[in-house]
Amino acid sequence: MKCLILISSILLGSISTYAQSSLPEYKSRVRELNTDFKVKAKQLRRDYDTQRRDAHDSEQDALEEVFWKNKLLIRKEKKRFKRELKSNPFYEYQFSDFVVNHQKVLNTKEPIEDDLIIEENELIASAQMHLGVPYRYGGSDRSGFDCSGFVQHVFNKAGFSLPRTSSEQSKSGKKVSLKELEPGDLIFFSHRGIKIDHVGIVTSTSGDQIEMIHSSSSSGIVITNVSQSSYWRKRLRKARRIS
Question: Among 17, 78, 223, 242, which one is least packed by beta carbons within 10 Å?
Answer without folding.
Answer: 17
